[in-house]
Design brief:
The structure is a single chain. The radius of gyration is 20 Å and the shape is globular. Strand 6 and strand 7 form a beta hairpin. Helices cover 40% and strands 13% of the residues. Helix 5 (140-151) packs across helix 11 (289-297). It has 13 helices and 10 strands. The protein is of the alpha+beta class. The longest helix has 22 residues, at 216-237.
């Protein structure tokens, strides 16, 4: 068992890549004392949280329970573990309505990651649970742009301070620091460079090149936009009332849709490809789409492996372009054969015990655990 930090998916990626279990709780539920925050003392535009990792779901839940209220951190809610909720949602007799998708509008996933989700969906349906497919992550493009703008709002100063010991920045951070350091009037020159790096993907080039140092006023405006996205996604996925057709006064873009799902949990890929080969992650910074999305929304999410790469089932032969082409260049079903691939279970904000209970149920069904 161990504890990890998560601002864009670090805890959850690590867990699935190692074939274990990881849980990103709602901000304020789990102690952070003794760990280094990325933005200490600042409003949590994108909350950095700590969470448990373990070799089994039972151990994961136990570590989460025993750590609640473990210190006097003033940022914590000090909410006790809701055993009744956990037991109710893990009960095999409880029929659950899942929403699921294997698309995000811009990036996509490998055949192995797609199969992990679809095989899980089939197992859940066979067990009597309802699974409703969404065309993509709601408002994914806006959410990722908002995520990058928030984490780069201070011009990268906090990241630079963290690296003052001489540690080299990871490629994702290097791209971010490059973007925020470029003056606004030179931004149009940066976009084509980023676009070429990511095989003419204008989406990711626009996201990266839009990041800049923000004034306090602009930062608050961006926080308000984040809250609009949170409200819209929550209504779309979990609300029991009619979904509005407007997002902050803007008509929903083509393909976004406004139909309500009213699910108890949302099932998505945990990453874009299986554990990448050594050195390959430097080109996969956009792969955090499926986890950073839920950091921005501050939704509890649990990840774990449900299958392994099968070279006979998971070949990727179709022609691709843009970010999918970049992914394909770092995916090899033969070399990755046998590596763990997993899913992510997500529930509404604050419903941590519900998330863990449903994850325990899914684990029991898919992995045949006790």
């Amino acid at each position: 068992m161990g504890i990890g930090g998560d601002i864009g998916g670090s805890l959850r990626h690590t867990a699935v890549f190692c074939g274990i279990y990881g849980f990103r709780p709602t901000a304020g539920r789990y102690p952070y004392s003794g760990a280094q925050r990325v933005f200490p003392g600042a409003p949590d535009g994108v909350p950095s949280v700590a969470g448990p990792m373990a070799s089994s779901m039972s151990n994961l839940v136990d570590l989460f329970k025993c750590s609640l209220g473990a210190d006097n951190d003033s940022t914590l809610t000090n909410q006790a573990f809701d055993r009744e909720s956990f037991e109710n949602w893990r009960n095999p007799k409880t029929k659950i309505r899942f929403g699921f998708t294997v698309h995000d509008e811009h990036v996509g996933v490998s055949p192995a990651n797609k199969r992990a989700v679809l095989d899980t969906v089939q197992a859940l349906r066979d067990a009597g649970h309802e699974c409703v497919e969404l065309p993509s992550l709601p408002y994914a493009g806006e959410a990722l742009k908002c995520f990058f703008n928030l984490v780069g709002a201070d011009g990268g100063d906090n990241f630079i301070n963290l690296l003052s010991t001489g540690e080299r920045p990871i490629p994702f951070l290097k791209n971010l620091l490059l973007s925020v350091s470029v003056p606004t009037f030179l931004k149009p020159l940066l976009a084509p460079i980023v676009r070429r790096k990511f095989c003419n993907s204008s989406f990711f080039a626009d996201v990266i090149s839009s990041t800049r140092r923000l004034s306090i006023g602009d930062y608050y405006i961006l926080l308000a936009r984040r809250n609009e996205i949170r409200a819209a996604v929550t209504k779309r996925l979990f609300s029991r009332v009619e979904q509005e057709e407007l997002l902050g006064g803007r008509k929903a873009a083509v393909g976004e849709g406004v139909e309500k799902v009213q699910c108890d949990a949302f099932l998505v890929p945990s990453f874009t490809i299986p554990p990448p080969l050594c050195g390959d992650s430097k080109d996969l910074s956009f792969g955090i789409m499926y986890t950073s999305y839920f950091n921005l929304l501050d939704l509890p999410s649990c990840t774990f492996a449900t299958t392994t790469v099968d070279s006979n089932l998971d070949a990727w032969d179709e022609e691709t372009t843009g970010l999918r082409y970049v992914l394909q260049q770092h995916y090899n079903a033969t070399k990755m054969h046998g590596l763990p691939v997993g899913v992510q279970i997500v529930t509404k904000r604050g419903a941590d015990e519900q998330c863990l209970g449903i994850a325990k149920l899914v684990d029991n069904i898919v992995n045949k655990t006790a």
